Each structure stands twice: as structure tokens, then as C-alpha cells.
């Protein structure tokens, strides 16, 4: 049967400029040149991952199309080589941990492991399926969801991770959630592990103290002990002994990513018309968390180069690809989910920021002194995990900095924590910055419903 | 004869496709047709019917705005706008003092708050539950073997309001069948259904904050029983529309079309 699929092609005309850009250096010391990346994206990847090249309106993750922005292509490269790189790391005996609870990943890398959040594990699983079209990929995602709904809960989200780990098709060595009030996902993954077949996968639960924890000395010290316990657990997998110095070095490395991300955000927020579209904003800022591609060094390479391009675009007044002049600026709060950037941009808006992972990306860790204590102090200070008033104050500050015109609070169906918080947080934000807010419940499924996108479009029109 | 510069608003909803033709701020033609399975064709058919009603041809149209769920397949439109914005503009056109809109369409129900210029200030939308939708009432009409248009007048002859607790379409249908089986009068059940829906949608209105004047738009707004039940449940007075409230979205789209054309967009 012939399949009619509108596929994106990188234009040959963009090659010359792109291949002159920098290599990516990976954590294991290997490198990939821009020319090799170009070859992969134009020849190999479209054959192996046709779904990722689907250029249809309903593919909210479709390729950005900003071909003059090298980091956008490098981000695609890192996403599409996820399975290749993870399998290579596994062959070298590097353990992989499935992490949850908004934690930073410094301790995992200090101890010689790779830490992946649910979205990254999903990306890994998606890259295991080669040669599938966009529609086929959607059907497979729905199948994943159904399987997890049946075995865990019908409210479950981020499903590929749980089930693939338990089935053994994703060779994860450790499940390591923090018990913070971030999302209900933690309980789902614990349930998946409890009933699953892979009891050999190590389980680590970081016990997260609650209520003004960052200002209580005992809580910081208690959580520092949890981080020590985490590192000892990883050491049991690797057979090595992680030192304080290892952790300190890792914190310095990850702080560079966090700093770069903050600096890029300040640059990006300055012009009335942002220098990139929403997808490329999200891609570069997420890299500052050093988790998203499973390789902090690779993320740093892209961040350093990306900052220079953003600086240049802002200086020259370059308008983001597909954006209208002075779009309505939306700050996104809530769960880890987001509406289609492209649909928002079609309607004359743009997402300028998020609160979720930005909370930990924008929190620097003290570099001198006891690294365990410093990391614990930083983790317990993440604004997203504070009480609603403190979280609202921090969010209001980000709204002012990003010059957002409105706030969209979007929570996943089944994300009980964020749904309970939505109204109160929005009311507080309104008091502090007096911008319109809209709360939307989102169902985790392969494609976003027209009803959901309709509300978002109406909100953009309203702004 | 001088050439007319006309503007069209096409609202392709789940049950009905509504089209309005405007010239110099006045409605000169309109059409309401049943929505079929070909979304694009529905829009074209609606447009042709409204043009015929106005005595115009496609060449007379300067600008077309499409709205409703079918707007994503509207090659005939110069611009697409959500029905939330269009209902706001349409209600403001029909009744400029409108501050709150209750919109009950075929597949969803919305509460919209407006500013003085007819712009959306806030909105809430129910698309999870069938209560408050035309489709729900259509299913109920089918149980009573009457047309949708007859439900409202029938409910006005009720002697008491029977409680109907289910607002899930399937369970409400079973509950209605049970009430009929035990000999209850259809009109008392119908008024109970209207009251159940009113209570269910009440929460949305408290979220956006009800302010007078309140305008009731969408196909369900033609149901006098529903209108009465809403007035009682929400303790509000709904304004008498001087135009067909089912056309509100299409009118808004036509208003936006004229304004966009004048601004050169």
C-alpha cells in the first residue's frame, strides 16, 4: 500500500554553512563533525526514522525548519541517535538510571552512570522503532499507553518508560525517583516496578523532606545523606568508588550548562519578536539541565555554540522562523506537557518559558564546600517544589523576565499534584502580575485533541 | 449595478454549518445546513447557500473567515479564527451590551466573558461531558420520538420538574427510558433534563464570573425550555436576541472578515 507522507528535507543549499560549524564532542571523548551530522540527517535518518521527518500539521514535534540555526539540526541529531548512543554506552558497561522527581543529574554522572527522565526514556524507546511512518508511530504509542493503562492505572502517563523497562527491551539498570510533590508519575513507575517482571532492576527512592525544607538544616543534611546513598547505590553497579572531588567536578560542569541556559534565556527574552521559534527555544534551554540527550558534554557543546548564534540573531534583529512580528507571549506552567508550538505560532503567539524543568535548570549549585550538602541545598530550593505562594512568586518573576502576556497552566490527566495546584497558583500569579491565565487539562496521547488546541488558539487570540 | 463588497463568516460546527454574508456592517444573507462528513464540502455548500440567499456570487466576496471545528479544512477562507472569539464578536454585534455568553453548540459548551469592545476577557469550556450539548439533547429527543425543536416547547407544559441525575448521555438515556416506563409524563422528564444540564454548566459560569447582559448563543439557544432552565438555575436574565442565536459564530466571523479586510489583512 502506498503511503502518502509529506516529509521534510534539509535543503542542500544549507549544507555549506552548516558543515562549517563545530563538532560535537561526547562524554566518552569521541567526536562527530558537522559534515557527519549533515550526512546522517539527510541520508540515514530519513530512512530509519521517517516519522520524525513528517512535515504534517499534526506532528507537533516536526522538524523546526530553521535551517540557518545549526543547534536546531544538532538537537535533532542527538534525539535521533539516542538508541545508538545508549546501546554503545551499555556495551561499555555504563549503567542507565530512570530518574523522576525533577532532580538534577549531577550525582549520576559523577558516579559514572547516565540518568534519563521519562521523556528521554520515551525517546529512547521511539528510536528503537525504525522505518515507521508518523501514523504508525502514533498507533504504536497508543498501544504503549493502552498496555500501561491496563497494567498500572488508566491515569498513567509517560508510559513507554515503565513498560519497556519491565519488559526488558530498554536495558535500564536502576529506577531512582525522588518522593517530592512534583508529579504523580513517581507513584506510577513505582507501581510498574512493584508488579513488573524485572525485579533485578535496582530501586532507589530518594526520601524528599517536605515543607520549607530548604531552610531547615536537618532537612538539607538528611537529603545530603540520601544523595550519598544514591551514589553508593550506583557505585554498587559500577564497582568503582565515587569521591567528593568527582561530584564537585561534575557540579562545576553542570553549572556551566545551567549558566549558559540562563544567559541564553535572557538573550532570547529581550527582543519583542524572539530570535527562534518555540521548539528551538525549548530545545536549547532544556539542554541546560544536562539530562535531555543523555550526554552532558554533548549538550554543553551545543549550548556554547547555540549561545553565539542567539547573540548574533538578537544583535541583528533576526526574527524566529515562522513567528509573526511581536507575537503574543505565553508562559507555560504545570506538568511536563506542552501544547503544539506550531499551532500557537500559526495563531500569532509563542511560548516564551516554562516553570517545570526551568525550576532546576535555573538553580545553580554552590561549587565550594561539601558537594553533597550543596547539591541537597540546591535540590530542596527548587521553586517548583515549594509551597504555592513561593512557587507563584518565582513564577511571577519568570513571567516578568520573559515579558509574557499570559499564562497557560496545563496539567496532564492523572497528574494529581499539578491539577490540585492549578487554580490556586493561577490565582496567586494573577495577583502578582495581573496577566490572563488559562487552565487546561491534557490527556497524554499520541496527538493532541482539536478541543485542546482550540482552547489554546482562543487564548492566543484573546491575548 | 454597482458591485457589492461582501464578507462571509462560515461556522462549520459538528451538527450544523452556519454561514453569514455581510456588506457595510449589515447581514445580507445567511444559511444553516446540516454538517455532513466532508468538512470542506460543508463549508463550500454553506457558503453557496448563503450567497444564493444574498443574491451574490463568490466573486462578490472580498474576504472570508472560517470558524468552528471545520475551520481547519477551509481552503475557501482567507483566515481562520476560533469560535470562541467569533461568538464574542457575534454576540457583541447582535447585542452590544453583552458581557457574558453561554454558548451551547453541537459538541461542546462554553462560558465566555467579554470586555466592552466584544473582545474575549476569559472563557471556560466543557468538552469532556456531553451535558449541555446539542448532541445530548438530540439523543434525548430521539427517546421521546420528537424533533429537537419540539423539546423546548414541550418542557414549558411541565407540571413538575423530575430529577434526572445522570448527565452522561448513555446513562441519562437509560434513566429517561426508566422514567417513561414507570409512567412519568414526558414533559416533566424533559424539564428535568434541562435543569440537570443547567446545573452541570453552572460551574463553568462561576469560573469566568457572570456579568449582565447575558447572551445565549449556539443551536441549543433556540430551545426555550433550556433557556428558561438556565435562567432559573443561574438566577440570570438572558437577553432576547434580535438575530438567530445559532448564527452568532458566523456573524462574528463575518464581522472579523470585514475588519481584517479594512485593515488590509
Automatic annotation (TrEMBL), chain A:
Superkingdom of origin organism: Bacteria
Cofactor(s) demanded: [4Fe-4S] cluster
Chain segments annotated as coiled-coil in the UniProt record: none
InterPro entries: FldB/FldC_alpha/beta (IPR010327)
Pfam families for the chain: HGD-D
Family: Belongs to the FldB/FldC dehydratase alpha/beta subunit family.
UniProt-recorded name of the protein: Benzoyl-CoA reductase/2-hydroxyglutaryl-CoA dehydratase subunit BcrC/BadD/HgdB
UniProtKB/TrEMBL annotation, chain B:
Domain ATPase BadF/BadG/BcrA/BcrD type: residue ranges: 9-257
Keywords: Iron, Iron-sulfur, Metal-binding
Domain of life: Bacteria
Entries under InterPro entries matching the protein: ATPase_BadF, ATPase_NBD, CoA_E_activase_dom, Dehydratase_Activator_Redct
Alphabetized Pfam families for the sequence: BcrAD_BadFG (PF01869)
Gene3D superfamilies: 3.30.420.40
Cofactor(s) for this UniProt protein: [4Fe-4S] cluster
Cross-referenced NCBIfam families: CoA_E_activ
Protein name per the record: CoA-substrate-specific enzyme activase
Organism for this UniProt entry: Paenibacillus forsythiae
Amino acid at each position: 500500500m502506498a503511503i502518502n507522507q509529506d516529509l521534510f528535507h534539509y535543503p542542500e543549499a544549507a549544507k555549506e554553512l552548516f558543515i562549517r560549524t563545530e563538532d560535537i564532542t561526547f562524554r566518552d571523548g569521541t567526536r562527530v563533525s558537522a559534515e557527519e551530522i549533515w550526512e546522517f540527517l539527510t541520508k540515514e535518518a530519513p530512512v530509519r526514522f521517517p516519522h520524525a521527518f513528517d512535515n504534517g500539521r499534526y506532528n507537533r514535534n516536526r522538524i523546526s525548519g530553521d535551517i540557518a540555526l545549526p543547534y536546531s539540526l544538532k538537537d535533532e541529531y542527538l534525539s535521533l541517535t539516542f538508541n545508538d548512543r545508549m546501546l554503545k554506552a551499555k556495551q561499555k558497561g555504563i549503567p542507565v538510571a530512570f530518574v523522576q522527581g525533577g532532580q538534577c543529574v549531577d550525582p549520576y554522572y559523577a558516579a559514572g552512570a547516565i540518568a534519563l527522565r521519562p521523556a528521554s526514556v520515551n525517546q529512547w524507546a521511539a528510536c528503537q522503532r525504525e522505518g515507521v511512518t508518523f501514523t504508525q508511530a502514533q498507533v504504536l504509542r497508543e498501544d504503549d499507553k493502552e498496555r500501561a493503562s491496563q497494567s498500572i492505572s488508566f491515569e498513567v502517563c509517560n508510559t513507554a518508560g515503565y513498560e519497556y523497562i519491565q519488559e526488558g527491551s530498554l536495558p535500564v539498570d536502576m529506577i531512582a525517583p525522588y518522593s517530592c510533590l512534583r508529579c504523580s508519575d513517581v507513584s506510577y513507575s513505582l507501581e510498574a516496578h512493584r508488579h513488573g517482571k524485572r525485579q533485578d532492576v535496582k530501586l532507589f527512592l530518594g526520601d524528599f523532606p517536605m515543607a520549607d525544607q530548604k531552610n531547615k538544616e536537618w532537612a538539607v543534611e538528611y537529603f545530603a545523606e540520601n544523595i550519598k546513598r544514591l551514589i553508593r547505590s550506583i557505585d554498587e553497579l559500577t564497582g568503582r568508588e565515587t569521591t567528593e572531588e568527582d561530584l564537585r567536578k561534575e557540579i562545576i560542569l553542570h553549572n556551566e550548562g545551567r549558566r549558559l541556559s540562563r544567559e541564553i534565556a535572557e538573550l532570547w527574552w529581550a527582543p519583542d519578536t524572539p530570535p527562534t521559534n518555540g521548539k528551538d527555544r525549548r530545545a536549547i534551554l532544556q539542554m541546560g539541565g544536562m539530562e535531555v540527550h543523555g550526554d552532558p558534554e554533548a549538550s554543553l557543546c551545543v549550548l556554547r555554540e547555540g549561545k553565539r548564534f542567539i547573540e548574533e540573531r538578537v544583535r541583528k534583529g533576526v526574527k524566529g522562523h515562522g513567528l509573526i512580528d511581536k507575537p503574543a507571549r505565553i508562559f507555560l506552567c504545570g506538568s511536563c506537557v506542552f501544547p503544539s508550538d506550531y499551532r500557537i505560532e500559526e495563531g500569532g503567539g509563542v511560548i516564551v518559558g516554562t516553570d517545570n524543568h526551568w525550576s532546576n535548570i535555573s538553580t545553580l549549585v554552590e561549587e565550594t564546600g561539601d558537594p553533597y550538602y550543596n547539591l541537597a541545598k540546591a535540590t530542596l530550593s527548587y521553586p517548583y517544589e515549594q509551597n504555592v505562594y513561593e512557587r507563584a512568586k518565582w513564577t511571577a518573576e519568570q513571567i516578568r523576565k520573559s515579558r509574557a502576556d499570559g499564562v497557560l497552566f496545563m496539567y496532564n490527566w492523572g497528574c494529581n499534584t499539578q491539577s490540585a495546584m492549578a487554580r490556586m497558583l493561577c490565582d496567586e500569579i494573577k495577583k502578582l502580575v495581573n496577566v490572563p491565565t488559562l487552565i487546561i487539562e491534557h490527556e497524554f496521547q499520541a496527538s493532541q485533541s482539536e478541543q485542546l488546541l482550540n482552547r489554546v488558539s482562543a487564548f492566543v487570540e484573546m491575548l | 449595478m454597482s458591485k457589492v463588497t461582501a464578507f462571509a463568516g462560515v461556522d462549520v460546527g459538528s451538527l450544523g454549518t452556519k454561514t453569514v454574508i455581510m456588506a457595510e456592517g449589515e447581514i445580507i444573507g445567511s444559511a444553516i445546513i446540516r454538517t455532513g462528513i466532508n468538512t470542506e464540502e460543508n463549508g463550500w455548500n454553506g457558503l453557496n447557500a448563503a450567497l444564493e440567499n444574498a443574491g451574490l456570487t463568490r466573486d462578490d466576496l472580498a474576504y472570508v473567515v472560517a470558524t468552528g471545528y471545520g475551520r481547519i479544512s477551509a481552503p475557501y477562507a482567507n483566515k481562520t479564527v476560533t469560535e470562541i472569539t467569533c461568538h464574542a464578536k457575534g454576540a457583541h454585534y447582535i447585542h452590544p451590551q453583552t458581557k457574558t455568553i453561554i454558548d451551547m453548540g453541537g459538541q461542546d459548551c462554553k462560558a465566555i466573558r467579554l470586555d466592552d469592545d466584544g473582545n474575549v476577557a476569559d472563557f471556560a469550556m466543557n468538552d469532556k461531558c456531553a451535558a449541555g450539548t446539542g448532541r445530548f439533547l438530540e439523543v434525548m429527543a430521539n427517546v421521546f420520538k420528537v424533533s429537537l425543536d419540539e423539546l423546548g416547547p414541550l418542557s414549558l407544559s411541565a407540571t413538575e420538574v423530575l430529577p434526572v441525575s445522570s448527565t452522561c448521555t448513555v446513562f441519562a438515556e437509560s434513566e429517561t427510558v426508566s422514567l417513561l416506563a414507570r409512567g412519568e409524563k414526558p414533559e416533566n422528564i424533559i424539564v428535568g433534563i434541562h435543569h440537570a444540564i443547567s446545573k452541570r454548566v453552572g460551574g463553568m459560569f462561576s469560573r469566568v464570573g457572570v456579568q449582565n447582559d447575558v447572551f445565549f448563543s449556539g443551536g441549543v439557544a433556540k430551545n426555550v425550555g433550556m433557556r428558561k432552565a438556565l435562567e432559573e438555575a443561574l438566577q440570570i436574565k438572558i437577553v432576547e436576541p434580535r438575530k438567530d442565536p445559532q448564527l452568532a459564530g458566523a456573524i462574528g466571523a463575518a464581522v472579523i472578515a470585514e475588519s481584517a479586510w479594512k485593515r488590509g489583512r
